[in-house]
Each structure stands twice: as structure tokens, then as C-alpha cells.
């Protein structure tokens, strides 16, 4: 579909994109090391809940072609840590990404290689601009699915490893029903550049 | 805000983006030559209705920085031609744009310099991908405002002149309450490259 217009329908209730070229379905067993409470991980692995789904409509790889997609983060926690995405840097460091939240309530963690971190709110109508060089993770802090639309360059690529190794310096946890940002005791900066 | 994350709130009911860096307010008197029925234009110029508003949050000019914005096309017609945007090419021909419709019912006209044309539907949840090289105009064919979110590269630029001179080869008109695509009798290909 290079240089050809296309359209896609994102079902607003479910976040599903019809005719997505890629559907990612992440369960707890796909990312057990990402949560800080490993006892809780072990206890929940039998049920192995779906944490999130991502629907992608891909273009050929080019900086002047963009991909579009949607993500649906389910509500829930692993221990006290809210369901969240793995989070990643783009392989092409300067590649930005834009989120437009359709429904639900979330937090967006943004972290540079240098360790600089920002935490943004996600709510219906909120546009989050993620510049190049910032790893990004989304967290559902509400009781309904967190559903958002995303745009990123087709040549951005994904670097999941850096975040898997070092983590984000902050966690988003459910503190008696209220989302709270706390330091990540397992944060390991410098492990991976 | 170069390379710094930012967020913005698009009010879903109104389409207004708080803290927009630019607000464009287009009335009929800003674009009288764009409608085919010039008698109707003259008759409606006294009232001079607002046709659309665009809210933009701009980044510094760079291909790796993007702008975000929203557009609100009012319902109505000039003669039998629905309210619409001027439409433009990007000055940087390869620059794409993505629309995400939040509410209302519309048509997206897409046209290349070669004259190739496509007409797409806009409705809540519809994502329209506009590749580089395609001029784009949005038309409100419903009875409520057509509200959509947009992303485009900060260095895309706007070329309104080509469309002002040659027009799109199709018009979207209200034919006894139903939107109809008809040939534009004033279409002048080749006038402007």
C-alpha cells in the first residue's frame, strides 16, 4: 500500500482494528520478568491473563510512511502493579510516536537512556506526544480497558531488550484503589545502553 | 518543545485543543472562490458563516518532529455544496498525514498532481491514511460538526495555491439530503503543477 491512501476502522468500544496486518496478544507468560512482585507473577501464571492486545496496520519500511495501530490494555494488577505494556525504545532513535486515548484511564511512562523520566496521564481526548529517544510504556490504572490509537514511522523499529534489562525507574501501583508512582527497587540503569 | 514529551487535551464534544499554538478560523469570506455556485456564495457572504476551525500544536520544523491538531467542520452547505476545508498539498511532497475521526460524518477527497482522485468516508473510529503527494480536503456531509484528530510532520508545509487554482475534480453535494459525488465543472487540471 506504499503511497496509496488507505483507511481502517477502529471499533471505538473494543479498540479492535478491522483488517489489521498484525495482532499482538500479550499474556503474563509473555513478560513475567517485567513485574516487580515475582511471587504474584508465579501465583497468576496459572490463570495467565491477557494483559494487552495491539492491532497494527503496517506500511512498507520507510521514514516517509507511517504505521497506525491501536492498543487495548486490560484492567487488572499483578500483585499491586497495574497491567502494562512491555515498553520499548524505537531502534531509530529520532522516530516519534503519537497516542490519542479513546477510553479508559492510564499512565504513560517515558524514559530516556540517560534515566530522565516523565509520567503522563492518559484519558479520553488526551494526545500524548512521544519524541524520539524516549522509551514508552502504557499502564491501565482504571477499571475498564485503556484504549488508544497510535501513529509511528514505518521504519521506527522496536527495542524491547533495553527496557527488559533495566526497567523503568518508576512503577505504577494500586495503593488502596489509587494509582501511585513509586520507585522501582529493581531499576538497573547502565546495564544496557 | 523539541524532543520533549508533551500532551494536549482535545475536548471530544467540541474538538477544541486546549493550549493550541495556532487556531485557524475559516469563514466563507476566506475562501469564496472554492465553491462552485458563485451566486450562492454571494448570497451567503453577508452572513459569512464559519466553515471550519483548526487547532494546532506545533513543533519546531523538522522531519523527525510532528505536529498534532484537530479540525471541526461545521454542518451546512453553500448552495448544494457541503461546507469543506480549502484542501492542500504538502510542500514536502513525501510528507504523510493521518486522520482519526472522533464524531460526525464526512468525506475525504484525495487528489494527486496527476489528477488521480479517491474519495474516502469519515466516521467515528475511521482512520484515514494520506500518503505523501496527495492533496486532501475534508467535507462535512452530516448534520453535526465533523471532528477529527490529525498528525503530520512538522516540516510538511502547506501548498494551498495549487488546489485553489485547479480545484478537485469532484464535488460533494447535498442531493435531496443524500451526499453525492459529482464532477466539478470548474476543474482545471494543468493550470498549476
What would your notes on this structure say?
Two copies of one chain form a homodimer. The first copy, chain A, is mostly beta strands and 193 residues long. Chain A has one domain (22-183): Jelly Rolls. Helices cover 7% and strands 42% of the residues of chain A. The first copy, chain A, has helices spanning 38-44, 161-166; strands spanning 6-9, 22-27, 50-57, 66-73, 77-78, 81-82, 97-103, 106-112, 117-122, 126-130, 134-140, 146-153, 170-175, 178-183. In chain A, the strands form four sheets. Chain A has a six-stranded antiparallel β-sheet with strand order 2-3-4-12-7-10, with no helix packed on it. In chain A, strands 9-8-11 form a three-stranded antiparallel β-sheet, with no helix packed on it. A two-stranded antiparallel sheet of chain A has the order 5-6. The longest helix of chain A is centred in the N-terminal third of the chain and has 7 residues, at 38-44. The mean pLDDT of chain A is 95. Strand 10 (126-130) of chain A pairs antiparallel with strand 1 (6-9) of chain B, so a sheet runs across the interface.
Amino acid at each position: 500500500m506504499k503511497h496509496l491512501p488507505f483507511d481502517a476502522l477502529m471499533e471505538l468500544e473494543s479498540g479492535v482494528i478491522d483488517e489489521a496486518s498484525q495482532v499482538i496478544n500479550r499474556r503474563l507468560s509473555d513478560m513475567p520478568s517485567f513485574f516487580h512482585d515475582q511471587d504474584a507473577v508465579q501465583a497468576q501464571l496459572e490463570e495467565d491473563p491477557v494483559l494487552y492486545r495491539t492491532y497494527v496496520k503496517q506500511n512498507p519500511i520507510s521514514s516517509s510512511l507511517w504505521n497506525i495501530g491501536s492498543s487495548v490494555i486490560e484492567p487488572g494488577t499483578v500483585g499491586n502493579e497495574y497491567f502494562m505494556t512491555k515498553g520499548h525504545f524505537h531502534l531509530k532513535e529520532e522516530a516519534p510516536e503519537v497516542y490519542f486515548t479513546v477510553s479508559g484511564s492510564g499512565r504513560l511512562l517515558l524514559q530516556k537512556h540517560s534515566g530522565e523520566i516523565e509520567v503522563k496521564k492518559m484519558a479520553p481526548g488526551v494526545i500524548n506526544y512521544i519524541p524520539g529517544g524516549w522509551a514508552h510504556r502504557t499502564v491501565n490504572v482504571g477499571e475498564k480497558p485503556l484504549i488508544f490509537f497510535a501513529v509511528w514511522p514505518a521504519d521506527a523499529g522496536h527495542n524491547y531488550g533495553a527496557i527488559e534489562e533495566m526497567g523503568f525507574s518508576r512503577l505504577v501501583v494500586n495503593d488502596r484503589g489509587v494509582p501511585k508512582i513509586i520507585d522501582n527497587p529493581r531499576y538497573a540503569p547502565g546495564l544496557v545502553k
